[in-house]
Amino acid sequence: MFDALSDRLERVATRLRGRGRLSEADLDEALRDIRNALLEADVELGVVVGFTDAVRVRCSGEAISKSLTPGQQVIRAVHEELIRVLGGETLKLTYASRPPTVVLLAGLQGSGKTTTAAKLAQWWKQQGRNPMLVGADLQRPAAVEQLRIMGAQAGVTVFSEPTDPVAVAAAGVEEARRIGRDVCIIDTAGRLAVDQALMEEVRRISEATSPHYTLLVIDSMTGQDAVATASAFHEALELDGVILTKLDGDARGGAALSVKEVVGRPIVFASTGERLGDFDLFHPDRMADRILGMGDVLSLIEQAERTMDRDSVERSATRMMEGRFSLEDFLQQLQQVKKLGSLGGVLKLLPGMSKEMRQAAGQIDDREIDRVEAIVRSMTPAERDDPSIIDGSRRVRVARGSGRSTQEVNALLKQFREMQKMMKGLGTGGMPGMGGMGGKGAGMGRLAGMLGGARGGLGGLGALGSPGGGDADLQQLLGSTGVPGGGGGLVGAKPSGPGAAAGDLGGGRDGQRGSGAPRASQGGGKGKRKKGGRVTPPKPR
Amino acid sequence: MIAIWIVLAVVVVALLTTSVLVGTRRRRRAGQLAPPDQAPPTVEAPPRPSVPPGREAPERAAAAPAAPPAAPPAEAPPAPPRLRDRLGKARGLFSGVVGSIRSRGAVGAATWDDLEVALLRADVGVATTDALLAGLRERVRSKEVAGGDQLVDALRADLVELLRVGGGATARTGGADRSGDGAAEPARPSGRALRFDEEPGVTNVWLFVGVNGVGKTTTVGKVARQQSLAGRSVLLAAGDTFRAAAGEQLETWADRSGVEIVRGAEGGDPSAIVFDAVQRAVARGNDLVLADTAGRFHTKVNLVEELKKIRRVADRDPGRVTEVLLVLDATTGQNALAQARQFTEAVAVTGLVLTKLDGSAKGGIVIAVQRELGIPVKLVGLGEGPDDLVPFDPEEFVDALLGG
After folding, report:
1. Which of A400, B78, B152, B310 is most exposed, with the fewest beta carbons within 10 Å of its own?
2. Nearest chain B CA: its distance from A180 CA (Å)
3. ipTM score here?
4. Around Cβ A105, how many Cβ atoms within 10 Å?
5. Which CATH class is domain B83-163?
6. Domain B203-349 sits in CATH 3.40.50.300
7. How far apart are CA B33 and CA B23, in angstroms?
């Protein structure tokens, strides 16, 4: 799964590190590994081939970067190419001059059309529109009933009649016009792309309703078949966009890339759960991270931006680089980081983690953080500023005050000293392979530049990989991460909604979040995830 | 000492987020990043000209959801569909590739590429494909296999062997022997047949599990019909209390097959429903309880716990869980393997149902599942109708996969 790619990328990076120039053979090997990783992510084979060719061209043309190893460079190229393909143009939703704006949903059985229809209705309602739902799935038992229930939850009228799909769709649009709705969403039955009769039927539905938007609803765990299915629907209906569903699972979602490449229409929405609110605009950069098996850093960053005090963090970072990072700074940062939620979960999301780190991250007990905090709090401000004054009797006092042992206090002080040294090394250019950074400004700028440029935290975290100082343990633990090892996976991290990073981290494989009680009906709480995020609503005409 | 991790972790996270925040700000100031709200270049779909609605007769009779017609259970069972026939729509997708390999005399680089393409496109997966081809390469090198024709036959034989119940590990791919290791719980291996214990005083329970949208409810409906026609007294348990109208959906199937159903309130405890069903089965003398469950991702811990509880409750005397069937969608890619692993670990899956195989997807991932977990495919779903369910036949499956 995610580990496979990250391990593979680590191996690639290790092989390529230290070479100044990327040879053809190196590129071949790196791309072969990328190819396998993409296949394992369910990207369709033809799409993989085309994609790696494009990356090859991009890499060949590039000058060898001074701050990245060749391996990192290849991966950054892959990442950027992914974002380019997945993103590009967005579908700007405009509305028909003569309402209603008709939206037709089509797709395979079980892809999530009915749930998506209701979510779309709610989404549009939140945009200030007045939508209506049409239940044209007369095939699946109780499909219309399902839509009625979900429509009621969204507060949206549902129209259906037991005639035939084409007739009910047309009647639905007419009804929407009659009662003055401005958006009409038509749910259709799931159908196989190879079923000629049913594809003909959906074509007739389209002809009868003249949709302004025809959207393909596709399951993000779809495998190699994604291309065949998407092509067939596109050919029959001329799609305007795609909606990707079930992103709350742990499928890598390579189908997104396949569909985008083959259909060429934007992926408009991402559906991330069974509740009506689990719906957001599609973020290509997050999808790129997910396909490559990297941590969803952006959700983390958004969460951090919202919850952390920027000035305080910036001050501390500056001091960190200058080697003046004190226990006081540490304490403040501890508070900030606690706002992000479970530290172990957060760490697993970060790229740049070696296997050892990830394993240890999974074992972090958040109560440990409290213990460490208690120790630091028991110190006086003077002691925090300059821990060297902490002699034996002070240590005993601190230990007693925090309820911990003197050994623990000793260990913390020792480790903190080592960390200070390491941080100083980072800031003042004592980093092998970095080509001399010199000065705090350059250090920060370099890191920031790399992180900003790579967006997934690719190159920048490579900087963290080889500290200038520190003892052997630290070196080993930080490990061979010249390249982002890939996060611990997107367990619980959804590509939408920044609240996902913290609030739902534990909702995944290893966490214990989420309601222990049996699920209530939809609209109830299945874990409390704040729905934030940037939704750019269409501008009203 | 764990403390080092705390210090390390805090500093790393702080450093990372700081650098990004600062870096982002700097770049924004320097005009390199667009502010988040700025819309990238857009594509507008022009509104289509309106067309008068047509009224045409449907090609397919719509099943009226309100009043399901009661299917008379006394009709003679229709001839069971063959996998081969129903795969007709999608067959031949690769007959070109494999057919051309057969006709080629020597085996060259292009042959291996073609085989790899055929297998990968069938969702067999990188690891299994590599293993299969490595084994075949060896045999070609040692002249055990010569020529395209023999090569395809050898591949076919290997695939069938991998899918054999109790096979998989013993095939020439050299995978670790996992047959029988995967499903730890079932006391007696039942091969590919659906296990049914004839002991008096035992109510067999078959549990249907899987992620969202794979076809569990439809499959339960089909199995209900088949078991009923085979002479067993079936009771359905509507264990999906989450999805809107899931109970109604299953009830329609109950009516179609003339079997009874136990339902509960929406949002209620699925374990309670399964428990009630077993009690009712004892009281009414039903042989078999088929329990539908809500779709759930294997990554959602609380939902997996709920499923474990359902199984535990169902397995209490006089109930006995004799099948835990994981329903897999043939269109699913490599994630199906993750699903199989996690569900097996949670509730000891005994067999797979591979649905939607009448489409263009090949479902090759079941090979990896059998290879790694030793869990056989028992049933194949080939459509939405009540008779669209057949026993799994490895040879027919492989033929369809290779396209001839």
Report:
1. B78
2. 17
3. 0.76
4. 25
5. mainly alpha
6. yes
7. 10
